[in-house]
């Protein structure tokens, strides 16, 4: 016997908002969070813009010493997790019905504590090994977002980090879904987090020729557009509360949506470039649909990985077309036009966007894009403005360096 798995809360900190209301308002309106880089002087990198978190409400859950004991990617994750639990109505301190041994955390990140790695690397070079901070290692470890959340909320169950580059957040949600579905947990916090906008990170991606050098924030991240020229770095965190349906109903939870499928594959092709025919991503989408037990024609919306890079989007467009054909009911958009590419956090933030699309029955616009090319015009990209749309099922795609493909399938909540 397996369990149905539902979403009862979410939290988000992102370039377009740090609350559900702010996030949805900007998502619906197509307001981009991309702007001139403010975290450091990026002049020498040749890159002008990024999608930075703005006005992060640090004081809501943290005190000053937390900045010394945790890197920003952990702070983002804890904030989103606590916001998600609050929405779900779960009081981890006082709820006697919450079994902490069956309450787990799986958080994905691609690069984790890159700013502290940069900072301590400089310190090592300038001042010697004795001046490297004692907490350098635990500050920078990828698993510390999971660990810090678990310590904060006393989650003693399934606990690990997913480290699959830009697929990490979606892999984390898919893994948590399976833990509950197969009876190993009652409640899981799952999603992604990233805070890698620093000179080290921007320079690395820029020298890889992965980033756009476009200076206009509204034309920098234009997924599927014929003039796309590279991705824009983003940051933030998106985390869901997942529960077994039985557990959620027993406590009278407000159910937001259901997770019904997960697909995970590898291209086994190239370090950074996806399979040109998109077959690995297509397989992951099909696996998610198969687990959900639905036909492609039942899907109303796809939140595409859509990074605003030529190779990625040619492959992903082919993958989508392979699975969904010419079905005009399947609307596609990449919300990275608004949030930038948040790397390991992308899947978590985009899961929130996909959930919002289902709740509001609205397909967000693929902002900034004006003209598709011959490789991307084979799919139904939402152009101009978002569209009210019947969305019973939606999927969210995440594709990462190393050939990782991850897809989750969500369903509009129906008590049947």
From TrEMBL:
<comment type="pathway">
    <text>Lipid metabolism; fatty acid biosynthesis.</text>
</comment>
<dbReference type="InterPro" id="IPR016039">
    <property type="entry name" value="Thiolase-like"/>
</dbReference>
<feature type="active site" description="For beta-ketoacyl synthase activity">
    <location>
        <position position="166"/>
    </location>
</feature>
<dbReference type="GO" id="GO:0006633">
    <property type="term" value="P:fatty acid biosynthetic process"/>
</dbReference>
<keyword id="KW-0444">Lipid biosynthesis</keyword>
<dbReference type="GO" id="GO:0005829">
    <property type="term" value="C:cytosol"/>
</dbReference>
<dbReference type="Pfam" id="PF02801">
    <property type="entry name" value="Ketoacyl-synt_C"/>
</dbReference>
<dbReference type="InterPro" id="IPR017568">
    <property type="entry name" value="3-oxoacyl-ACP_synth-2"/>
</dbReference>
<dbReference type="GO" id="GO:0004315">
    <property type="term" value="F:3-oxoacyl-[acyl-carrier-protein] synthase activity"/>
</dbReference>
<comment type="similarity">
    <text>Belongs to the thiolase-like superfamily. Beta-ketoacyl-ACP synthases family.</text>
</comment>
<dbReference type="InterPro" id="IPR014030">
    <property type="entry name" value="Ketoacyl_synth_N"/>
</dbReference>
<dbReference type="InterPro" id="IPR020841">
    <property type="entry name" value="PKS_Beta-ketoAc_synthase_dom"/>
</dbReference>
<keyword id="KW-0275">Fatty acid biosynthesis</keyword>
<keyword id="KW-0443">Lipid metabolism</keyword>
<keyword id="KW-0808">Transferase</keyword>
<dbReference type="InterPro" id="IPR014031">
    <property type="entry name" value="Ketoacyl_synth_C"/>
</dbReference>
<feature type="domain" description="Ketosynthase family 3 (KS3)">
    <location>
        <begin position="2"/>
        <end position="412"/>
    </location>
</feature>
<comment type="function">
    <text>Involved in the type II fatty acid elongation cycle. Catalyzes the elongation of a wide range of acyl-ACP by the addition of two carbons from malonyl-ACP to an acyl acceptor. Can efficiently catalyze the conversion of palmitoleoyl-ACP (cis-hexadec-9-enoyl-ACP) to cis-vaccenoyl-ACP (cis-octadec-11-enoyl-ACP), an essential step in the thermal regulation of fatty acid composition.</text>
</comment>
<keyword id="KW-0276">Fatty acid metabolism</keyword>
<dbReference type="Pfam" id="PF00109">
    <property type="entry name" value="ketoacyl-synt"/>
</dbReference>
<keyword id="KW-0012">Acyltransferase</keyword>
<dbReference type="InterPro" id="IPR000794">
    <property type="entry name" value="Beta-ketoacyl_synthase"/>
</dbReference>
<protein>
    <recommendedName>
        <fullName>3-oxoacyl-[acyl-carrier-protein] synthase 2</fullName>
        <ecNumber>2.3.1.179</ecNumber>
    </recommendedName>
</protein>
């Amino acid at each position: 016997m397996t369990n149905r798995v539902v979403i009862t809360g979410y939290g988000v900190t992102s370039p377009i908002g740090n609350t559900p209301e702010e996030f949805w308002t900007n998502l619906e309106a197509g307001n981009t969070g991309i702007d001139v880089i403010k975290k450091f002087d990026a002049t020498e990198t040749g890159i002008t813009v990024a999608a930075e978190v703005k006005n992060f409400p640090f004081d809501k859950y943290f005190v000053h010493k937390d900045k010394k004991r945790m890197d920003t990617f952990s702070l983002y994750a804890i904030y989103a997790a606590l916001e998600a639990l609050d929405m779900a109505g779960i009081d981890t301190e006082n709820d006697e019905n919450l079994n902490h041994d069956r309450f787990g955390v799986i958080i994905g990140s691609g690069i984790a504590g890159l700013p502290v790695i940069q900072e301590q690397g400089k310190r090592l070079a300038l001042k010697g090994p004795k001046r490297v901070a004692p907490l350098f290692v635990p500050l920078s470890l990828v698993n510390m977002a999971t660990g810090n959340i678990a310590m904060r909320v006393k989650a003693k169950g399934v606990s690990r980090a997913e480290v699959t580059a830009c697929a990490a957040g979606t892999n984390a949600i898919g893994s948590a879904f399976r833990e509950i579905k197969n009876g190993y947990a009652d409640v899981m916090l799952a999603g992604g987090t990233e805070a890698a906008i620093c000179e080290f990170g921007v320079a690395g991606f820029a020298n890889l020729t992965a980033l756009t050098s476009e200076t206009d924030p509204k034309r920098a991240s234009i997924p599927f557009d014929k003039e796309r020229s590279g991705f824009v770095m983003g940051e933030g965190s998106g985390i869901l509360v997942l529960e077994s349906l039985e557990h959620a109903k027993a406590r009278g939870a407000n159910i937001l949506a259901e997770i019904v499928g997960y697909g995970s594959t590898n291209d086994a092709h190239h370090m950074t470039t996806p399979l040109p025919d998109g077959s690995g991503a297509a397989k992951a989408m099909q696996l998610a649909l198969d687990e959900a037990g639905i036909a492609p024609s039942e899907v109303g919306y796809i939140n595409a990985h859509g990074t605003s890079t030529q190779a990625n989007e040619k492959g992903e467009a082919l993958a989508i077309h392979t699975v969904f054909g010419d079905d005009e009911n399947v609307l596609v958009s990449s919300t990275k036009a608004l949030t930038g590419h948040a790397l390991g956090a992308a899947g978590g933030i985009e899961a929130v966007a996909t959930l919002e699309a289902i709740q509001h029955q609205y397909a967000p616009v693929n902002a900034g894009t004006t003209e598709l090319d011959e490789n991307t015009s084979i799919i139904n990209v939402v152009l101009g403005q978002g569209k009210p749309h019947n969305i019973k099922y939606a999927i969210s795609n995440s594709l990462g360096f190393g050939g990782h493909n991850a897809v989750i399938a969500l369903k509009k909540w129906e008590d049947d």
